[in-house]
Amino acid sequence: MNNLEILFQIIGGIAILLYGIHLSGVSLQKMLGFRLEEILKKTNENPVKGLAIGTGITSLIQSSGTTMIMLIGFISAGLLTLKGAIPVMLGANIGSTITIQLASFKLGLYALPILTTGVFIHIFSVRKIYKNFGEALIGFSFLFLGMNFIFTGTQSLSLNESAVALISVIGSSASLSIFIAATLAVALRSSSAVSVFIVALGVSQIIDLKAAIFLIFGVNLGSSLKIIYLTLTGRGFFGRIAFLSLLFNLFGIFVLLLFFQHFHYLISATSGDIGRQIANAHTLYNIIAALIFIPFIPFILKLMDKYVPIKEFKNKELFYLNRKLLYTPSVALNQVNRAVVEMGKISYEMLEDSKAILFEGKTELFKKVEENEDKIDEMTGKISEYTTQISQQNLTKKDAMRLYSSMHILTDTEHLCDHILTVAELLIDLRNDKIEFSEKAVRELTAIFGKLKIMQNLVIKSLDEDNLHLAYEIIKHENKVDEIVKKAHNNHIERIDKGMCPLENAKYFSELLNNLERIGDHYDNIAYAVVDRFRYK
């Protein structure tokens, strides 16, 4: 086998393995669905349980990144504290070593039987849960098939003296090994794939156990650097989680390098097979580091309060609407609600800017109102697409009602922003035509804007807190808005009849009242949509 064939076999094997991890993980997430939320909610109880839950979930879905994203969703929704999330994060690191453990047992022989079984179950099953199980088996078969190619490729690579010499040079240096493995883990966005490759190198006798341990340290560091990369590119990770992950792995590497001889001896004693030893090194690294790290959590949280900002690192709108959350619909719906609250805050700005155009003559704010309305339209499109994807999942009655509610709130928010823009346009035309309303008309508009401001604040708060009481308050205020608008209309007609209001002024005033009333109606609709959420609470 020539060098190019060896390269293609290893790279192709890694690609198949990565797809297998993805397919099996996604399928198992679909099967577990809302159960993942119920499991993760228990992590606030104690660190040991959190560690076990993080390990178990990540072992199943084979992605510590997905577990981390779910944790972020829970933290941002207020369902989980950062203190409760840390042990789960540490457990996720342990659970992510399941792939390397499977690789060390050389299960590639079973790839085709598992593939056959998976295909039959997926094709002939009617129920979704069985189809997903079949798909998960297909994913596992690809995982094992990828391992086969990687092991075969590295076995051929062991005959290439130049390649072996180069890898030996890398393996002889702890810092170079850590750097190379960390870089590969970040580049492939998978510590599991790099870990399997390291096992294959060991089994092919290209590297010894010492070099393999250094490379495993690098793989773990790379998983933290991947999280930092996701944080800086606005992919949905909190700065604090990135800081914790990096601190954990730097801490673990430092401690185990300090006691390297003892760690090396411990790993050597776990098995006589180097593949098993490398897999055990990866697992024991994360277990030992986690057990040492957990007692320091209170101190680390205090350290973060002082040096790490609470705000999220983000440079991308709606970055938290992550596709990986779709298979846990309740978490995805929390993120949709977060997006709708964000839209509510933008609509509040639009309302306040329109008010400033009317009462303070700040016509320059019209451009900002237009920009915000464009932003609302763009957000509506993205959120609508995300809610459509959620609707295709297996939903509980409670989640289905929340989705229905969120879709209505989204539509009403977009429509009320359209009316706010229309109000701003009328006010600009009014200024351009140099039309001024009577003192009484201005007082009536002031009262309406005041009520709408109260309603908008209540909308944001009721959505943010999922508060039924505040939703009913909005409904009460909408009735008052209708009363004020009706009275203003009657007064307006009276002024026209008495010849106190020019027809040009009357046109503008009537249009303003109609649009302001429609804004109040949409707030009312949002309130009823919030009430609907409590039908299955």
Q: What does this molecule look like?
A:
This protein is mostly helical. It has two domains: 3-307, no CATH class; 323-536, Phosphate transport system protein phou homolog 2, domain 2 (Methane Monooxygenase Hydroxylase, Chain G, domain 1, Up-down Bundle), CATH 1.20.58.220. The chain has 22 helices and no strands. It has helices at residues 3-32, 35-41, 47-61, 64-76, 82-95, 98-104, 111-124, 128-157, 161-171, 174-188, 191-203, 209-232, 239-258, 260-270, 274-293, 297-307, 329-360, 366-391, 397-432, 439-465, 468-497, 503-532. Helix 3 (47-61) packs across helix 5, helix 12 (209-232) runs antiparallel to helix 13 (239-258) and helix 20 runs parallel beside helix 22 (503-532).
